[in-house]
Amino acid sequence: MSLWHNAPTLPELNYCMQEKHDELIELIRLNPVMRSCVQRMVCETVPSNVILKESNKPLKPELQRLIGPYFSKFLADGIEMAYMCGFVVFVLRKIHGIRLPCLLPLGSFTWSVQASTKDTKKRKREEESLYRYDVQPTHPEITVDDLYVYEFQAPRVQRMQCLPSPVDALCASLQNIRQLQSKIDEVMTWNSVKHITTSERVDIPKDQTTDGLSLLDDFRRYCVGDQQHTGLSKHYMMLNGPGGLLARTDPTLARNAWIKKWAFKTEDASNRAQIHVLPPNTDVQELNNLDMNVNLQELQTLFANEVYAYFHFTAASETAKSSQANAQFISQSEVKSMRQVSNFCKALAAYAYACAFDTDVVNVSVELPQPSGMHIQSADDIKKLSEAGTLLPGDSLQLRKGLMRNV
Fold this sequence. Notes:
The chain contains 13 helices and ten strands. It is of the alpha+beta class and 407 residues long. Helix 2 packs antiparallel against helix 3.
């Protein structure tokens, strides 16, 4: 039973889901700030070779060489999916003759929040819960029974459940920035063209009869709007304005010019000056430029700060301005956030390995290097560590290779 109240029609729901799909994928995959934070999290938490053990025993070297790099790619893509969807969904497929977990590509499935009852069909290796993510694949050869879903964040119950995501707030901020950007573009387009207004001073005619006033209105409409009216003399129209010039032109040439102008959007080049004649009692004024008092760069900086706050990161420019004590606090906050994601990667890798090899997840252990807040940037840092007695005899060669980049 899905949590839709006042449910829209199926076409409306499909349109909303497709639009939300595109927004989430564009945010995760194409936004530079978001992409940078996700990649930084992956680089700090996922090694190039994931070490797995079963029942505290190392795997066979042949198996470890195969699945170690594979699980590294699996975890990197899993972190991206976790931030976008709030869970990681995969199926089991044979790769090199071994059944391994395979993530569903982003955009190949839809999801919502579902109430889990006694009548709800249980998924494979699913724990008891009150609510769960209801994932529907769009691939023709994959069914719901083939899916394995591992939660990154617990489902949240809302009135409207259209692809709920942990980054919904960032999507809303990005939409507001785009709307303001479109308004700024419209203002710039308006300001790039001169806008002139004309107003006419109308004196009371000497002939105040009905015919005199009507003749004045017809003449004013013709002079200003170039619209011929049957009330004016046809000979007067031929003598004044572009209408009279067109009336004295060969009909064949006029027809060709009309076809070029409206059918092919072209006009004959003219060497004559363009003269615009207005009535003598016309006032001309130029409209001022529009100003929204909105700085697009400030909006983009605000969005970038929201992304950094979501990942518990701090921009490099802000870190440089901070004092030493403040910079140390920022580094500790970032490391704690990375360690939390590293623990999630350990649990995800153990769960995926247990599903692939049909074993209990408690028997699987994963070794991932914990992110550290200590960074060696120069020889002075190594000297301080050596004087503190924290270096072992075998650490000298490793530090030399890392410092000299002779790996």
